[in-house]
Amino acid sequence: MSIVILAFLVLPVQEGEALELPVFRESKTFQETWDESGGIEFLFQPSRVGKDRKFKQDLVGVAYERVASTGAAHFLVTFLEDQRLHILLAKPSARQSRMTRSLFRNPGRLQEREVASREIHEQWDGTPRNAPKGWFAIKNDRKMSDNYDHLGGDYILVSNEVIITNTDFEKTVPEQGPSTNRWAVRYVLTKEGSDRFDRAAEKLYNQSPKGLCAIIMDGKIISKPVVMAKKFGGTGVITGRFSKKDAERLALAFRTCSLPCDLQFWKKLEYRPEPNKKLEKPDRKDLSTHKIHSSPSREIWLMDPKEIRWAIDNFESEMKKCLTVSPPENGLQITKINAGSVGISRGLKNKDILRSVNGHSMKTLADIKKMQNDPRNKRRRSITMVIQRSGRNMVLEYRSER
């Protein structure tokens, strides 16, 4: 695996500007496993960006459930200031890594709808804009013949009413068909979904020829099976021209909610664990300061108002008294951190290289005083430091609790 150096754009927070906490969900064992074993980070670019926090929460929530459905035990999902979805897998298997990326190729909006009967199709001229009331035209996935030659056109009619969606699937399992290379998805529906499907199945079964239902994923028909029974009792098999990968992806997508937007894969990064790294123990002795977010690229601390005010006012003296620094070419290297120190030393480690503080580049010790004397810092209630740790850039952010 290769170690990738990340770069970050740090935006200053002005006085009075709302400090929005990052949206993230993390499995209990993620950080410990990541520190010990490293892992993989996937970055996805959403088709929609902005400041809508509910949208971010929905996106992170659905993404978390999808990753969990692969069997991954150690992972973190977050939406950061770069307006990208970050998914970090600690010690993933090859299958979990492959499935995680494929799970986000499509939003996964699943709908099952009734296909219009022969009679309705024969009264329709075949053009989408002239679809009869209660139906809409959708591109045909497979042209049919013989008893179903009314479904031989480029478009077919499906009902405006949805029979079942993602939320109606309780269990889905990919399975290989007997004596064939084709794969299918076996499913179990919820009680409510089962009742709706059986009502629709009875109607379709009594048609002549027997009716079909269209399984639509993200606006495209992926299968349209003929209904061969009046009642299914909440179980069944979705067949189609599926490969093993298709069936695995569909089975996972079926039993999770749809994403609130499209995602485009942007980058994959691999990380190795830091050698001889000791696990960090949380320190709760000093005031009410505590860490609220930790990932390979960012740590965020909520600091007691008294502490952050003191840290801002005494940044230079804190650096001189509590830290010994040795300036390399690309910043100030930390060579000593006094035990029990508070303020800006929280989160810093020996051998970290301090590159900037609140937008001020750190090249020499004089830059610390220059930053301290900047009148804009007197009005701030936050400190943002960019450091380099083990060859990778990282952001340490300190925010006032209130």
CATH class of the largest domain: Alpha Beta
Total beta strands: 21
Low-pLDDT runs: 1-21, 276-284
Calculate the mean pLDDT score and round it.
Answer: 80
* Helical content class: 10-25%
Summing up helix and strand content along with how strands pair, one would put the structural category as alpha+beta
CATH architecture of the largest domain: 2-Layer Sandwich
Number of discrete helical segments: 10
Q: Domains counted in the coordinates: how many?
A: 3
Tell me, what's the shape?
Answer: elongated
Q: Rg from C-alpha positions?
A: 28 Å
End-to-end gap:
42 Å
- CATH structural fold name of the largest domain: Gyrase A, domain 2
Reported for the largest beta sheet, the result is: 8 strands, mixed
Proportion of residues in β-strands? 25-35%
Helices and strands, with pairings:
Layout: E1 23-26, H1 30-37, E2 39-46, H2 53-69, E3 75-79, E4 85-90, H3 94-102, E5 110-115, H4 118-122, E6 135-139, E7 155-165, E8 169-176, E9 183-189, H5 191-205, E10 213-217, E11 220-223, E12 235-242, H6 244-254, E13 263-271, E14 290-294, E15 298-303, H7 305-313, H8 315-322, E16 323-326, E17 332-337, E18 353-357, E19 360-361, H9 365-372, H10 375-378, E20 382-389, E21 392-400
Parallel strand pairs: 15-21
Antiparallel strand pairs: 1-3, 2-4, 2-13, 3-4, 5-7, 5-10, 6-7, 8-9, 9-12, 10-11, 14-15, 16-17, 17-18, 18-19, 18-20, 20-21
Please describe what this structure looks like.
This protein has 402 residues and is α+β, with helices and mostly antiparallel strands. It folds into 3 domains: 1-106 and 259-279, Alpha-Beta Plaits (2-Layer Sandwich), CATH 3.30.70.3400; 110-244, Gyrase A, domain 2, CATH 3.30.1360; 280-402, Pdz3 Domain (Roll), CATH 2.30.42.10. Helix content is 23%, strand content 33%. The protein has helices spanning 30-37, 53-69, 94-102, 118-122, 191-205, 244-254, 305-313, 315-322, 365-372, 375-378; strands at 23-26, 39-46, 75-79, 85-90, 110-115, 135-139, 155-165, 169-176, 183-189, 213-217, 220-223, 235-242, 263-271, 290-294, 298-303, 323-326, 332-337, 353-357, 360-361, 382-389, 392-400. Strands 14, 15, 16, 17, 18, 19, 20 and 21 form an 8-stranded mixed β-sheet that branches. A hairpin with a 2-residue loop joins strand 18 and strand 19 (360-361). The protein starts with 22 loop residues before the first strand and ends with a strand.
